[in-house]
């Protein structure tokens, strides 16, 4: 529903006694900006006297406090956030058979019984409280809130072996954190190969946008989908080739396989501008999104609003999000009022990950249908594809400029020390197999022994891949260089590939993203420092390198990993241990972690037949 169709309800809410569905009455607050009816979400709520300034013609404005101060698209959300409410959700992880593409998957692991799981919605400035109950018979679980800054709440980051033990069967973990950013993201399990089996859902934080729109869609997760268990498929990553390969593509939980299943369906009305939020929730596949005959106006990369730019196709890496606005304007090229929505992926010839059976076949690329009111019959769209090349490169860095760019200063750290090689580590088997890594050794965590309960340590098990980052907030930026494969005279050979690199607890500015080999002496001279793209997942080009900058302002142990589930499981991850001495003071108490670990250990002790860590662990744990 658009803003205007809601405006009567908005007025009623502003002047009535604002109902608030969490069951608590908050008479001192007003509820406004109600959006589409996601269960459990009743609109945004700010203190009495605050006014919404958001409308179809002014999406840049959000709220105005009684003094007239605006929170808008130009507000520095890193420093100043409106005063939201506490919002509580309950979710349960269960196992159930589903058939999203017509083929049954027996042991899908689901959030509240659905794939994708329910949208968790909040508003800029809110605090989310999410009770996550694990009802899986054979697995622990954790939930990671992808891209959420978690400033001062590292213990809510949801990474087993790092910030908590897995939540045991029957146990509940309560995540609580502040939403200082706004925009589109997702939440997913960080327990081994669990998210590709279904534990993933959109996370939507309402706030201003950098261009105007009339109506919005609920966020859509685009993903590759496996008919078999992802835990089973992961074996291929270790023992292959052949490597893990998905069976179909799902758009918002709908897909087709061998003529069965169905297309994603949505409607457009001429002249309306639609806000569409795209999330790449794949395990191994990079997609190019397009809609025949329509332009895409891109307004955000991950949680970062950008200066709008137009394109006909959008390359989205795993874990990345793009918010786009599409203006509906049917033309005579489609005689039956319907247009294809396409999610294409590159085949092996491009050097991209070839994650889906039948890559390049047309049927797989056409995954959705956009219909106009005059659409007729049950026939397929007759529209034709925009001309564009399929590749897995990032959108060009000179296009994705943040509304509030950072100006990156000299690094505090020694970038020679902090240059990491991501690749398939040749010459040595780790836990029985060749593996992907990014430090000297693949990550291998003990679920029962999270980093966060070892904060007195001065030395670390090398398999925890802990890197000490003891830098001061006031000292400016810290840089990280990541190369795809080994470089120069490295003694260890690592095989290069594309990797979507995700850092927890931070956004990173991209100082360089090059397809050419890194040279420690000459490459840094070409780093760029102004108007740089900023996000939380950055594509590392095959055989090239990226240089990233972040602010060391968030004490905690933050995972940095490849978001291809198979590579992360293999070991391609490290921990940025930021300001170790301040972690306990800056974050909340760890009682929940200690209790959760006791329950996990008790579950393990009685479930050795299901999972014996000594006998059965085969992946990094994440
Ligand atoms: C998780 O559950 C799957 C079955 O769905 C099983 O194959 C796998 O071994 C379990 N893994 C762990 C680490 O608990
Ligand atoms: C995605 O699927 C959900 C559940 O079926 C539905 O409520 C929602 O409207 C869909 N979103 C879009 C954009 O189609
Ligand atoms: C998702 O990311 C993967 C890996 O980067 C990529 O292969 C796939 O094409 C992406 N999907 C979309 C819809 O862009
Ligand atoms: C980009 O697309 C939007 C929405 O379709 C349109 O209003 C705008 O004029 C376009 N901008 C350019 C530079 O073409
Ligand atoms: C639907 O409307 C568009 C213009 O609004 C027109 O170009 C198209 O031919 C119409 N299609 C049908 C089936 O009437
Ligand atoms: C930076 O780190 C490298 C590699 O660890 C080391 O050889 C070099 O001496 C360091 N430079 C400075 C200025 O500390
Ligand atoms: C994992 O850590 C726990 C707790 O420190 C310890 O008891 C257990 O022996 C460790 N497991 C392995 C396989 O090292
Ligand atoms: C913490 O230090 C102890 C003692 O040196 C060591 O045994 C343990 O492995 C360390 N923990 C981690 C997670 O590295
Ligand atoms: C590799 O080592 C050789 C011999 O020591 C040296 O001449 C060359 O500069 C080194 N190359 C790089 C890229 O460091
Ligand atoms: Cu990877």
TrEMBL record:
Cross-referenced SUPFAM superfamilies: Cupredoxins
Gene Ontology molecular function, alphabetical: copper ion binding; oxidoreductase activity
CDD domains per the UniProt record, alphabetical: CuRO_1_MaLCC_like, CuRO_2_MaLCC_like, CuRO_3_MaLCC_like
Pfam families for this protein: Cu-oxidase, Cu-oxidase_2, Cu-oxidase_3
Keywords: Copper, Metal-binding, Oxidoreductase, Signal
PROSITE patterns linked: MULTICOPPER_OXIDASE1, MULTICOPPER_OXIDASE2
Domain Plastocyanin-like, first and last residues per copy: 93-209, 219-348, 445-581
Residues spanning the signal sequence: 1-23
Protein family according to the UniProt entry: Belongs to the multicopper oxidase family.
Name assigned to this protein: Multicopper oxidase
Organism annotation: Zopfia rhizophila CBS 207.26
